[in-house]
Amino acid sequence: MPSRRTFLSLVAAAAAWQTIAARAQELFSPFVGSDPENVERMVKLAAPASGETVIDLGSGDGRIVFAALKNRPGVRGIGVDVNASLVAKANAAAGVQNLSDRVQFLHQNVFDADLSKVDVIFMWLFPELMRLLRPKILAQARPGTRVVAATWGIGNWPADVTDERTGNFTTVRLWHVPARVEGAWEWEASIGGNHYRFEALLEQHFQQAEGAVRVGHRRQLIQSVKLQGRSLQFLLSMTLPGTGYTGMSFSGEVRGDVIEGTIQVRTPVREDEELEGLPTIRLPWRAKRTLEIGYFAPTGTDIS
Ligand SMILES: C[S@@+](CC[C@H](N)C(=O)[O-])C[C@H]1O[C@@H](n2cnc3c(N)ncnc32)[C@H](O)[C@@H]1O
To answer: Does ligand 1 have an atom closer than 6 angstroms to the CB of 56?
Structure first.
């Protein structure tokens, strides 16, 4: 069986023969089995839980899927591979281990795999192939799905966790598929006896998001944005007409075109009072995606 070093030199060769590879086998990484230690580290990082389903894109002899199921009776596994004899071997091994009811290996191109119902995606493929799979993962996998890949990153999608090793070990990385938050959102809230309409514009680059909010004729940037899977959090401190300078901490779950969660509000009694340490009021937060964003509406010249 070729070693990891052989695999790495194959990568170098593939780069050197880019033109040939691009014409002939751009969707293929040859079979090289992951080192057992690296398999363990990938599974540990993914931490599959009972009731979850894992998939290995390019499953080879099935070792990553088997390791993910080992000592985890509630976990189900899927492997897909274009190599029919490896698929047959993996299914036979599943039978020997009495795992056929929890695992299936499919003779399938990774680009045809169904990613919509899995919780963990494993990959150890050529970097170009993982990069080519990125749009499919981001479009089809559910927000919160964990992606664990060995050796290479996935283009410029920053990993959430990097387990870097040297020597015989390879680097293993974890990503959470982010919810789609890019676009315009609106919500309403009553604070200090006044009713406000918030109109927000969010921009997104993978799990990194930033944005701005308009209330009345005031606009403010949101701060400390955290997006992990469906979970979205950010801070907004701005002067609300009639209430004064107000600190708001938003925390919610993104479900398609709706975000539901909580707003923690701090309002000062006096104009010069620090928000830090003030009592917090909790309000429900329900934001809806909108096409009619008022963020761009004329502001007027009264900016006091
Ligand atoms: C480097 S091996 C990894 C095997 C296994 N995941 C492991 O880590 O031990 C890559 C595997 O991906 C399979 N493969 C390559 N391109 C594929 C494609 N487009 N669709 C399905 N399988 C593919 C190969 O047949 C090979 O078994």
So the answer is: yes
Residue 117 belongs to a domain:
yes
- Tell me how far the alpha carbon of residue 150 lies from the centroid of ligand 1, in angstroms: 13
- The verdict on residue 9 lying in a domain is yes
Burial 264-290 (b: 16+ CB within 10 A, else e): ebbbeeeeeeeeeeeeeeeeebebebe
Ligand 1 in reach of 151 Cβ (< 6 A) = no
Determine which of 89-98, 201-210, 287-296 has the lowest per-residue pLDDT on average.
Answer: 287-296
Question: Which tens digits make up the pLDDT trace of 139-190?
Answer: 999 999 999 999 999 999 999 999 998 777 899 999 999 999 999 999 999 9
Q: Which domain holds residue 87?
A: 4-176
Q: What is the pLDDT of residue 271?
A: 58
Query: Ligand 1: does its nearest atom lie under 6 Å from the Cβ of 34?
Result: yes
Same domain membership, residue 220 and residue 80: no
For 128, other C-beta atoms within 10 Å of its C-beta total 19
Number of domains in the chain: 2
Q: Does the pLDDT of residue 16 top 60, yes or no?
A: no
